[in-house]
Amino acid sequence: METRAFGLQVPGPSLPVIPLLLMFVLIPIYERVVIPLARKITGIPTGIRRLQRIGVGLVLSAISMAVAGDAETRRKSVAIEHNTVDSIEPSPMSFLWLGFQYAIFGAADMFTLVGLREFFYAESSPGMKSLSHGVHWHLATS
């Protein structure tokens, strides 16, 4: 894929930064806007229930995978059209097409990881809190 954007050569391994940047922007918006609005609508102190939050994250993860499949289909058809399938020449398709899947995945991570953290903290017995948080941390970072 073409890795030039806005006149800059962007290294491919820097793409996973997109979900982190999105979470950096979305978490304050979610905490300051979405939760108070949901709190008014539902009457639940957390806005939506923890398991609903985790469910939203899992649905967004599935949507992210569907978007990734669509982007890969487009990438392959562009590569075939421009005869760059078996070539070391990059396809003329921009790598920014992958940004959509990474952005959706960042939102999914926000919902799932925050929901799991709250769920483990609220629902675990005192002796299991550190174990559940440790397992959660291990899964989130691997």
Automatic annotation (TrEMBL):
A GO CC term assigned to this protein in UniProt: membrane
Gene Ontology molecular function terms on file: transmembrane transporter activity
Segments traversing the membrane: 12-30, 51-69, 95-116
Keyword terms, alphabetized: Membrane, Transmembrane, Transmembrane helix
Subcellular location(s) of the protein: Membrane
Domain of life according to the entry: Eukaryota
Topology of this chain in the membrane: Multi-pass membrane protein
Similarity comment text for this entry: Belongs to the major facilitator superfamily. Proton-dependent oligopeptide transporter (POT/PTR) (TC 2.A.17) family.
PANTHER family: OLIGOPEPTIDE TRANSPORTER-RELATED
Full protein name: PEPTIDE/NITRATE TRANSPORTER
Species whose genome carries this gene: Salix purpurea
